[in-house]
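Today's session is about reading a structure prediction critically. Students often jump straight to the picture, but the first step is always the sequence itself: look for stretches that repeat, for charged clusters, for runs of hydrophobic residues. Only then move on to the predicted structure, which in these notes is written as discrete structure tokens rather than atom positions. Here is the chain we will use throughout the hour.
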Amino acid sequence: MTDSTEKKNKTTKDETAKSPENTKDTVEDTTKDTVTIEAETEDKPSSDEATTNPEAEKSAAEKDDDKFIESTKKFVASAIDFISGLYAKLKNAIEASGFDPQMQSKTVDRILDWVKNRYPSETYKSFSDFLTTLGHWGIVLAEILVILFGLTAAIKLGNWVYAAYSVGIAILLAVFQYIANRFLTAGDTLIEATPSSLQSTAFMDCAALLTEIAGLLFFLTSMIIAHNIGQWSMLWVGLGIWCLCDAFSYIAINPKLTNIEIKTDISAGEEAIGILSFIVKTIIRIVPIAFGAGTIIGVIGLLSGTISLMFTGVAAAGVASIRLIILCTCLPFASYIFFAFYHLTIDILRSILSLSNRK
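Below is the predicted structure for this chain, in token form.
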């Protein structure tokens, strides 16, 4: 009994000794919790502030946007007024000056109209028939000159094979002349059997102008080159190219020559087909000019080459002239075949376009 009573008293004394420390710890914890709650209360906005500040900020942003929009509208209106006033002053100044900025274009149109009236399609046909006749005469002369050239080459070079070659080439030229004669008229028949349409003469007028300028520039360039290198054969080449370009321009300003009708109610696809057809028909129309002019130039070159062969023993110029004559005699047949198959493609395109229009 005595021992247990003493233990209880000792335990009570120990707890009494520790109680001040426990009380101190409890007070410190309570103080810390109070400080934390106050800090969180200060950091967290009140419910009134949370509901009031965003609306105030939103209204302020809308006011700023309205001010910006109003200022932008005023600036745009001022800019439009300034540009309109500047445009009106500039327009009045141009009208008061009396200067026509399209004067050059109108001058070119007047020149083209004068050329169209001065050189109708009948004149081209007459000139084409004349050159065709000259081409046939040229082939006859070329047959004689080829034989003379072959005999000269055989004597100068000591090989009589050239004489045999010349006789064969003369016979070949006679055959080619017959073929050319048949297909020169066949090309005209094909053109008359294949009508085409364009919305206006704008494309043909521009093509005529550009082609004429290109031919003239090529002739002048060939003249300069011939003078610099001392070979005047380039001058003949330039002249021939200029003649072909001039023929192209002549055909372009006369739609009747290519059987083209001007219609304002055609579609873009029909316009494209008309342009393609115009180009091919123009080539067919140029062939008689190329046949006659090329043959005459080749005959002149062959005569010059034969004379040169007699004195220098060089046959290059004569051989080149013979090749040119053969090429010119083959042009009618080649152009006819090209036109037939090319226009087959155009007819297929026209059929496809017609089916699409029906749908």
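Discussion point for the tutorial: The longest helix spans residues 47-97.
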